[in-house]
TrEMBL record:
Keyword Nucleotidyltransferase: yes
Name of the protein in its database record: Sulfate adenylyltransferase subunit 2
Region feature (Disordered): 295-319
Catalytic activity, EC: 2.7.7.4
C-alpha cells in the first residue's frame, strides 16, 4: 500500500512561476476589455473559474488593502444566468460575495424567459442548461452588453480549444468557428458591427491544475461543494448523480451516501460530483495531478450526448 502524500512537502516543489505569467496575461486581457468596450460585463456564477477571474479583475482594477481585501468597484457589472436549478449553496455564496465586494450584480433568470415564452420546456425536470443561451442573449440585448468576460478554458473541451481569447459573436449571438479573428503578438481586433458582441476569456490558456494552484496560492474562497463532503447520490450511466428535487431516483436506482466533491458546478440536472476525500485546495491540487479525465468529461451529463454537443450549443449563443 502506498504511503499518503506529504502535501506540505510536495506542493512547495511545484514551480509556481508560470502562474505569474498567466496572471499577467489575464490582467492584460481584462484591461484590454475595459479599454476597448463601452458596456462589458463579467459572467459570474460563483464557480471556481469565475471566482478566479473575479480575483484577477480585482487585481486589475482595485486597490489591495493591508488586510488583503480589495477596495473599490469594478468598471463593469457581474452577470449571472440563473437557470432556477442551481445549487442553493452556490447561490448563497454568490450573493454573500457580491454583498461583501460592493460590485453590481445582474441576474438573468431563465424562469423569466419561460414566462415570456422564449423558452419552452418539454417537461418540468428537463435540464435547463442548454436553454441558458436564450436568457443570456436576452440579457445582452436588454443591457446592451458589447463584451462578456467568461472563465472558459481551452483544456475543458474540444470546442473550447478552438475558441479565441476574444471570441467574436454575430448579431444572432452565434459563434462561427471559421470566422474567428487572428490573435498574433497579443493584438486583438475588437471592431464590432451593430448588434454584434464579443466574449473574452482571460484564463483561456490556464488548465484545471493552474486554476487550483492559483486558488491555493491566493486563498480564494469557493462554495463548499468544491471540497469533500458527504452527499446522497445515485449511480447512473457511470456518474454520481446528486439526489435533489429535480434529480429524483429512477425505478431500480438505490440512494447511497458517498464522500464527494464537485469539480465544476452548474445546473443540478446535469452536474455530477466525483468521489473524493480532498478537503482543501492543497489536497485538490494533489488529486488533480493524477486526474485522467477532464472535469467536464468526468462530471457533466450534457456533454456526453455527443462529441459535438458543446460546439453546437456555442453556435447557438452558449458561453
Amino acid at each position: 500500500m502506498n504511503a499518503p502524500l506529504d502535501l506540505e512537502r510536495l506542493l512547495p516543489q511545484i514551480d509556481h512561476r508560470h502562474l505569474d505569467a498567466l496572471e499577467e496575461e489575464a490582467i492584460y486581457i481584462l484591461r484590454e476589455v475595459a479599454g476597448g468596450f463601452e458596456r462589458p460585463a463579467l459572467l459570474f456564477s460563483g464557480g471556481k473559474d469565475s471566482c478566479v477571474v473575479l480575483r484577477l479583475a480585482e487585481k486589475a482594477f482595485k486597490q489591495r488593502q493591508a488586510s488583503g481585501a480589495y477596495a473599490g468597484r469594478l468598471p463593469f457589472a457581474l452577470l449571472h444566468v440563473d437557470t432556477g436549478h442551481n445549487f442553493p449553496e452556490v447561490i448563497a455564496f454568490r450573493d454573500a460575495l457580491v454583498k461583501a465586494s460592493g460590485d453590481a450584480l445582474i441576474v438573468a433568470h431563465l424562469d423569466d424567459s419561460i414566462r415570456r415564452g422564449t423558452v419552452r420546456l418539454g417537461h418540468a425536470l428537463e435540464s435547463r442548461n442548454p436553454h441558458q443561451s436564450v436568457a443570456l442573449l436576452e440579457a445582452i440585448e436588454q443591457h446592451r452588453f458589447d463584451c462578456l468576460i467568461g472563465g472558459a478554458r481551452r483544456d475543458e473541451e474540444k470546442a473550447r480549444a478552438k475558441e479565441r481569447i476574444f471570441s467574436h459573436r454575430d448579431h444572432f449571438g452565434q459563434w462561427q468557428p471559421k470566422e474567428q479573428r487572428p490573435e498574433l503578438w497579443s493584438l486583438f481586433n475588437t471592431r464590432l458591427r451593430p448588434g454584434e458582441h464579443f466574449r473574452a476569456f482571460p484564463i483561456s490558456n490556464w488548465t484545471e491544475l493552474d486554476v487550483w494552484l492559483y486558488i491555493a496560492r491566493e486563498n480564494i474562497a469557493l462554495p463548499k461543494l468544491y471540497y469533500s463532503h458527504p452527499r446522497r447520490v445515485l449511480r447512473r450511466k457511470g456518474l454520481l448523480v446528486p439526489l435533489t428535487a429535480v434529480t429524483p431516483p429512477q425505478p431500480g436506482e438505490a440512494v447511497e451516501t458517498v464522500q464527494v466533491r464537485f469539480r465544476t458546478v452548474g445546473d443540478m440536472t446535469c452536474t455530477c460530483p466525483v468521489e473524493s476525500a480532498a478537503a482543501s485546495a492543497t489536497e485538490v491540487v494533489a488529486e488533480t495531478l493524477t486526474a485522467t479525465l477532464s472535469e467536464r468529461g468526468a462530471t457533466r451529463m450534457d456533454d456526453r450526448t455527443s462529441d459535438a454537443s458543446m460546439e453546437r450549443r456555442k453556435k447557438e449563443g452558449y458561453f
